[in-house]
Amino acid sequence: MVGLGVVAQAVHLPLLAKHPDRFRTTALCDLSPSTCSRLADRLGIDEVRQFGSASDLVDAGDLDAIAILSSGSHGELAAAAARAGLAIFCEKPLAYTLTEADALAELEPRLMLGYMKLYDPAVERARELLAGRPAPRAIDVTVLHPPDEPQLAHAGLPPRPTDIDTAALDELGSAEAAVVERAIGRVPREIASLYSGAILGSIVHDLAVIRYLVGGPLTIEFADAWEHSIAIEGVLPDGARVSIRWHYLERYPAYREEVRVHDEAGTVALAFPAPYLLHAPTVLTVVDADGDGERRSESRWTAEAFERQWLAFADFVSGGEPPRSSIAEGRADIVACQAATALIAARRGINVGGEAAGGGG
Q1: Total domains present in the chain
Q2: Three-state DSSP class for residue 282
Q3: Tens digit of pLDDT for each residue in 270-301?
Q4: What is the value of pTM for the model shown?
């Protein structure tokens, strides 16, 4: 496991521990030695299997799979893991550049991209329902995103570590900035942060859900950003219009995410709870006609999407069904995110460079 941040501690490690017959965590990597040591003690992992460098962990051998949970672009590390013959669970984003995604694809790794909502039973049921309904006319997405700290307060995690080597952080920051520049050129920090942060770091989940529900790709036609909000408009191959509204709200009381698919017969809507509140219900609401009236049905599931995704990964590594998102899907999201970033920049009189200047593809 590479990257032992709050989500790894509050979500991934507890869920893996529930299934000792499927998973055994045997090596840890993090920039914080104290975090690595504390979690290694809990898991019974020897000091020689604790790493401060992801490349050292990959080179150590005696692993079947790697979980890449660190921040930033994951293309280079995923490629190194693929060359080492490891199965790969990779959190989003897959990468910042199309070049990274294409280089990774050439290695043909066994890779699952971490879009956990695709394994939510409510999303699965919505997909089944939509397959039997008229073609969608419009899809509306709204995300109300408070800070992460309140969402993770229930986990009772220790304070953030203070023993991270600042030189290592600076090196990683410089490397990330270089990859962002290859993706969108030399742009103001605000634009670069939008691309690598909210767009590739959060809105990609909604791009993945839309694709899984009704297909794609999504062509981006409009994008804007103001304060801590982002608006994206796009069109699907069948002509359906997509509207995404993402808002970071410093004092908002609870995370809220809604995806509504409208067709001529009614609406199929999903309401997601805070992603880190395990087993909180996702609500599926279907609105259609009942004679001359309206019928509204609501279903909810508490099966944990993160957990079901991990079990699907174990099956995939053992020769089971392919993942619902991998390199091709990650690449499509990079194209869309670069396009959205280019449109936001253009509204401010800024021309992007790098891959985004070419329009993706």
Answers
A1: 2
A2: strand
A3: 999 998 889 999 999 999 999 999 999 999 99
A4: 0.96
